[in-house]
Design goal:
- With 249 residues, the chain is mainly alpha-helical.
- Helix 5 packs parallel to helix 7.
């Protein structure tokens, strides 16, 4: 995880925030957390958390939208707190109904929500909004934050249970770190480009989850995660091509 967040940061500096967002949108955190949970808590626990992860991705969309709105009114840290509260509120709202629908229904709902957010994603009214210069020791700070989250979530999984473990799996740690540092150093227009890049990864991650729904009970952890990750990569690349053709990213 520390190496991945460093890679995302360097890629953003080299090729721009859209490319950095695409890389960040891959299941580096969510996929790893799910894998660790499956190994520690068992395949059944991990499978039962998949619907929660889909709900968590819906909450993640809420984080991005709320950050785009708040970020044009408040400073980076305040915007992050507001957006994380939105994430948790959406997760709490759906927590008791997560088991009502099957994974495939949640998958369809998730794709519908991604489409709606892409269509109406907030634009930056003032492209000159910028808060300052990049923070010193930016990469080490990002690496520390992402590592702390992954460790905290995997160790607390047994206490949280599969539903909340699932909802918190896509907790916007990479997203929040990228948003805050980009907001502070480059302005909200670059934050928006980062988010748009990440949407391709979220589409791919959705296919990763629905693949695990069918693969995990039949093939176990190793094969299931390897195949699901391959499907994720292909789906994300297709999404990027489609989004570019539509002028989304």
């Amino acid at each position: 995880m520390p190496l991945i967040i460093a890679l995302v940061t360097l890629a953003s500096r080299r090729w721009g925030n859209i490319v950095g967002g695409v890389i960040a949108g891959m299941p580096w955190v969510g996929g790893a957390v799910l894998l660790f949970i499956a190994i520690e808590q068992g395949e059944s626990f991990a499978w039962n958390s998949l619907r929660g992860v889909m709900v968590g991705l819906i909450s993640w969309l809420g984080f991005c939208v709320s950050y785009m709105i708040a970020g044009q009114r408040f400073k980076a840290f305040t915007s992050m707190i507001i957006s994380m509260l939105v994430f948790l509120c959406i997760g709490a709202l759906f927590m008791n109904v997560t088991s009502v629908f099957s994974p495939i229904v949640w998958f369809v709902i998730l794709l519908l929500m991604i489409s709606i957010v892409l269509k109406f994603f907030p634009k930056v009214k003032d492209t000159s909004i910028q808060e300052g210069r990049p923070i010193k020791f930016e990469i080490p700070m990002r690496m520390f934050m992402i590592t702390a989250f992954v460790l905290a979530l995997t160790y607390s999984a047994s206490l949280l249970g599969p539903t909340w473990s699932g909802i918190l799996t896509p907790f916007p740690v990479i997203t929040a770190v990228l948003a805050v540092f980009t907001h502070y150093g480059q302005g909200m227009q670059q934050v928006r480009l980062t988010f748009m890049g990440m949407f391709t990864g979220v589409f791919g991650f959705s296919t990763f989850l629905i693949s695990l729904v069918y693969l995990l009970p039949a093939y176990g952890i190793g094969i299931s995660f390897a195949v699901a990750l391959s499907i994720n990569v292909v789906a994300a690349l297709i999404a990027k091509l489609v989004f570019e053709k539509l002028g989304v990213v």
